[in-house]
Write a structure and sequence with these properties.
Layout lengths: L5 H8 L1 H5 L15 H9 L5 E6 L4 H12 L3 E7 L1 H11 L7 E4 L3 H13 L5 E4 L4 H8 L13 E7 L7 E4 L9 H17 L6 E5 L10 H14 L7 E6 L1 H5 L1 H6 L12 E3 L3 H13 L4 E7 L5 E2 L7 H29 L2 E2 L3 E2 L4
Parallel strand pairs: 1-2, 1-4, 2-3, 4-11, 6-9, 7-8, 7-9
Antiparallel strand pairs: 5-6, 5-10, 10-11, 12-13
């Protein structure tokens, strides 16, 4: 099904301001080695993206942005009360020379200003500072002034879990409280598209529930079955979708074998789609705080990626989240640029198609 291009075309017109010039080579971000190290290695091959940091008025959020700047991942534009931002910098003992700062009276105004910057292509990503995620979402979903697309916005955690062979992507654990089936379709597609940007060409998507069989008494199993049929019929594309699957047989091959589950996803899932926000939040934070997983997080489905981390996340998680946004922003620009060249009958290396 074709999708409108007008929001993305606006991004391309301002691509040089936000992204720099290198759009043609997007390295695989998730592969051998630890997932987060691989992510940061991939980001180093790309130009930093201009990123609005919304209300960075405490040490954690400001230092996270500075570390991402030092790593060459972002070019920060600080948006918030100037006095509070400078006070936070002074407390950290860091200078902000060379950093652009837009003074706003409070966090609500900072969120609105950041949305305008993203909407006009002046920044390629947004990053949460010392404000609640709901403030950012409230500004992002406004019909006239926000960053809506045809997709439902959703959050994806990328988790590097010790003793697990690959990165895990958990969605949605931060935005959609009790998603409908239509919402879940967008949640799945957003996660698949992120995996493509990170170098996973056909991600394996496990739609989670408590059991592996469809039961009318457990609504999440019915949704899982419907999502699988939607994938079969082309309403979800680019990945392998299976469910319902319980968490054990989604990530453990031996568990899947023991339960006699024959599936290309079971035991080897990349993406874990949870039934609701509560279960997703519990799963992600258990992996972080009990299993020592390293996390990065993005809100997807808006016109630009939005970096959202927990207030308890450290600097490395914030930098990794920015790196994921950087790779995704470059991937989108490169993909759309290639599409527009193809639509115009141009070969990127030889001019008009067919001419050699």
């Amino acid at each position: 099904m074709s999708r409108p291009l007008s929001p993305a075309l606006a991004d391309v017109r301002c691509a040089r301001v936000a992204y720099g010039d290198r759009h043609d080579s997007i390295p695989a971000a998730i592969g051998s080695g630890t997932a987060m190290a691989r992510l940061l290695d991939a980001a180093r091959g790309l130009d930093p993206i201009r990123t609005a940091i919304i209300h960075p008025c405490d040490g954690n959020s400001l230092m996270g942005a500075i570390k991402a700047w030092d790593a060459g991942v972002i070019e920060p534009l600080l948006v918030g009360p100037k006095a509070k931002i400078l006070a936070a910098a002074a407390e950290l003992g860091v200078g902000l020379d060379g950093t652009e700062l837009i003074d706003t009276p409070h966090s609500h105004a900072a969120a609105e200003t950041a949305m305008a910057l993203a909407r006009t292509g002046k920044v390629a990503a947004l990053m949460k500072g010392a404000l609640h995620t709901q403030e950012i979402l409230a500004a992002a979903v406004r019909q006239e002034t926000g960053l809506r697309t045809e997709r439902r916005m959703s959050h994806v955690y990328a988790l590097d879990v010790p003793n697990h062979s690959k990165a895990l992507f958990i969605t949605d654990a931060a935005v959609n409280i009790a998603p409908s089936l239509a919402d879940k379709r967008d949640i799945v597609q957003n996660a698949i598209d992120l995996c493509h940007a990170l170098g996973i060409p056909e991600p394996k998507v496990a739609v989670l529930s408590a059991v592996e069989t469809v039961s009318p008494k457990i609504a999440s199993t019915v949704d899982a079955a419907a999502l699988c049929k939607m994938a079969e019929r082309g309403q979800i594309t680019g990945g392998l979708v299976d469910g319902p699957l319980a968490i054990d047989n989604a990530v453990s091959g031996p568990a899947a074998v023991t339960k006699h589950i024959v599936s290309p996803v079971a035991g080897d899932a990349d993406v874990l789609v949870v039934p609701d926000l509560v279960s997703g939040n519990l799963l992600a934070k258990q992996l972080v705080h009990l299993a020592g997983a390293k996390a990065a997080g993005l809100i997807l489905g808006a016109r630009v990626p939005i970096v959202v981390t927990s207030r308890s996340d450290g600097e490395r998680s914030r930098v990794a989240s920015c790196a994921m946004a950087q790779i995704l922003a470059h991937y989108r620009a490169a993909t759309l640029g290639a599409f527009l060249r193809s639509a115009a009958g141009l070969d990127p290396d030889h001019g008009p198609a067919g001419r050699r």
